[in-house]
Amino acid sequence: MTGNPGATHSAIDAVWRIESARIIGALARIVRDVGLAEELAQDALVAALEKWPGDGVPANPGAWLMTAAKYRALDELRRRKLIERKQDEYGHELVVHEAHLHIDSHDALDDDVGDDLLRLIFIACHPVLSPDARAALTLRLLGGLTTDEIARAFLVPEATIAQRIVRAKRTLSEARVPFEVPRTTELPQRLASVLEVIYLVFNEGYAATAGDAWMRPALCEDALRLGRILAELAPTAPEVHGLVALMEIQASRTPARVDAQGTPILLLEQDRSRWDWLLVQRGLTALARAEALGGTRGPYALQAAIAACHARARTADATDWPRIAALYDALAQLMPSPVVELNRAVALSFAFGPAAGLEVVDLLVARGHLRGYHLLSSVRGDLLAKLGRTSEARAEFEAAAGLTRNARERALLLDRAAACAS
């Protein structure tokens, strides 16, 4: 790929998105400082930007970045006068060609990369941080998202997210939070925020907040892997299995969510024969595990039950909308929020007619909830179109298109606006 800097930079960006969390996790284990680990990983990225355009992208770019980052970590340990204690432990991972860091295998990548990622997410979700800071830091470290993308996910200004991340890393460093998985006795109180963040990472992959792609499957895969690891770590926690069930079932739709040109296909218009039925079965099994543990169903188990309703319907017309509406009622009582109300409105519209859904949506608008959230305008436009109020629907779809930062989603919304006009 030499001689084409643009293509090389695109390749570097893609590799960074995939590998950054693993690299930061491995570095955090070495230097015991999440903020420093991210800085060292960024240094390795800068080295790639300087070297790869001339030398070409290496055969194993992830291992190249990992090795370059670890060299920088060892240099930092030398400056800290700790290299004697660490070099025996980590030195064997760094046998590479000195001149070009040439690697032909995955030897430089750690075998326990899953453990590193798990430790990293428990650090990012540590109780010493506020809930908002936990989510933002994890999306940054494990999702590889920019502050702008995270801000879009949280519907807050970019400067707010940047401040949260800086303060979170400083707090973790000052508190000397250990780089380890919590003890079994500490897990229950730590799991709730971890589950929330894992699902945020999954959602960013499932429906990207920005960019040209409708989905970022690598993020969904990372979230699923972390969820599965947690399910083994906490086998008696129903909500862990509920979250895994929810993600498995939603991920099963990935092959059918875009057409050959990458244009989004909405759920009720998807070819369900293209769904990954192995993932569906895994999701239903995880949901059964959650329900078998008994007790009141939590928010993830309820959302998984909703997803299961769609999965069990082999056609869109066979969907049990009254049951979905009832499940959303239960979810709204357990976890009241404007977003849940918006989803409940959609379910009500299918179960009892678009006017029932529009009543809930208009109440959200009147209360000023979700202002600037493109899906509010999108849902309202859909309900207005079904009621024959096409000019109003067109305005809502155009407003939604102006609010989204995802190019594919914008095109879909503009197409729907045009359909209203015709």
UniProtKB/TrEMBL annotation:
Residues 190-290 form the DUF6596 domain. This is RNA polymerase sigma factor. It comes from the Bacteria. InterPro entries: DUF6596 (IPR046531), RNA_pol_sigma-70_dom (IPR014284), RNA_pol_sigma70_r2 (IPR007627), RNA_pol_sigma70_r4_t2 (IPR013249), RNA_pol_sigma_r2 (IPR013325), RNA_pol_sigma_r3/r4-like (IPR013324), WH-like_DNA-bd_sf (IPR036388). It holds the Pfam family Sigma70_r2. Residues 22-81 form the RNA polymerase sigma-70 region domain. Residues 121-172 form the RNA polymerase sigma factor 70 region 4 type domain. It comes from Variovorax rhizosphaerae.
